[in-house]
Specification:
The protein folds into 2 domains: 130 residues, MutM-like, N-terminal (N-terminal domain of MutM-like DNA repair proteins), CATH 3.20.190; 125 residues, Helicase, Ruva Protein, domain 3, CATH 1.10.8.50. Helix content is 27%, strand content 19%. The protein contains 7 helices and 10 strands. Helix 1 crosses helix 6, helix 3 crosses helix 6 and helix 5 packs across helix 6. It binds a DNA duplex (16 and 16 nucleotides) through loops.
Length: 284
Amino acid sequence: MPELPEVETVRQGLAGWVIGRRLDTVEVRHPRAIRRHLPGPVHFAAVLAGRQIIDVRRRGKYLWLPLDSGDAVVGHLGMSGQLLLQPAHAPDETHLRVRFRFVDGDPQLRFVDQRTFGGLAVSAGGAELPAEIAHIARDPLDPDFSDTAFVAAVRRRRTEIKRALLDQSLISGIGNIYADEALWRTGLHGTRPTDRLPAATVTRLLAHVRDVLRAAVTEGGTSFDALYVNVNGESGYFDRSLNVYGREDQPCARCGALIRRESFMNRSSFSCPRCQPRPRAVRR
DNA sequence: CGCAGGCCCTGGTAGC
DNA sequence: TGCTACCAGGGCCTGC
């Protein structure tokens, strides 16, 4: 599942292949893939034809391609989205949703998405920062991310710490996998109330979030072919470096207790029962 | 306004 | 074998 490290890997992979190139025709193969582009597929293709891509940028799990027109193509990979660079003669993928051709020929850029949770849109005037993602917080790898503001904001919330980590308006880029990994590293159960966490604990958690994201970016960057910008969450480093996610009933790397799986927010959470004790019920 | 929960979507797999 | 049920889960939307 693409979270910040996977999206950053895609960003880096795309940068070397699309920056400076001029779009020719754009083909929308499935309207749901551009459902956030309210003017529709015909407008989407028309406003992009002939434009030059000048950068590839990212905030959290969002990517955008600033154009010479001042607009930008903004995209989210959802759960199964991929941006692939392919020669024109490569057969269409089963779930090909959008195709970008370039005036200089190969490779073309393809948006492929099995489950169509992801999507693309053109953001008018969005080259610097698309208005569509202005509500998304800076991510912890952003040099302008404010640690002190984050720690204060978390402690003002009245919710559970895992919910806060997944709230993209508070901190972006973290999904279910890296939330579980960072909580394990910190020794916190995901249901710990945010307003009862000491500032020093939130600070430690943030440091672990950064560490696990950075490590994953490093490993992700080496496991992908330059021409095939893969965001398949099952591949690459995932299996090797995760300590809790997907490891139900396997021993904790730190203490040997068997990793447990709990249902949380209608999805699975993995944690160590010894390193990450559940909070005692407290009267609030 | 802050927070919780439902919904969208489809391929793979477990179970009968 | 073939069918059904369930699971993966980020972000948007609604309701309290």
